[in-house]
Amino acid sequence: MLDLLALAALNHLLAATPWARARLAPFAGRRARLVMAMPAAALTFRIGTDGTLESLGDAPPDVNIHLPAGAPLAALGGRDGILRGARIDGRADFAEALGEVLRHLDWDVEEDLSRLVGDIAAHRLAGAGRAFAAAGADSARRLADNLDEFFRYERPPGIGRAEAAAFAGAVALLRADANALERRLGALERRPV
Description:
Layout: H1 2-15, H2 18-24, E1 31-36, E2 41-47, E3 53-55, E4 63-67, H3 71-74, H4 79-84, E5 87-90, H5 92-104, H6 109-117, H7 119-154, H8 161-190
Parallel strand pairs: 1-4
Antiparallel strand pairs: 1-2, 2-3, 4-5
């Protein structure tokens, strides 16, 4: 069900960008899988003759795009952030075209809203949404800066010298015990039965 919703959303974006459909059309019939680590999800699709995406099921893909666990958070930083840490394998020409299209797809929220509520209300709602997203991104950036400062100056990560020395001593004792056990096992093996 989520696969169909994701494909419908991507096809909606493709419908508004003829250049993207034209870029994908030569790869009609080729299959791709978009795998997201967190939350664990995979979207498998095939390119249609018109450059749109079609549901495919579980057939083996020509291209796999593995998104890192941080992809949803990277999306807050812009659409380029989503594919920044992606690992792509498979047919190079198809992977390149697919990556280019995915990087440049853009949703015109204001246009879609104008069909529902009119031009003026859509403009105001889109502006409020952009301001809300900017405030969220700014808050996330400030939180990251504050955590960085806290761990750098207030509570440095890692362990102190005393803890490191105690750990090294425990490792040395364990190593000595393992060597003694190894010697005893060797003596037992050499003993006649």
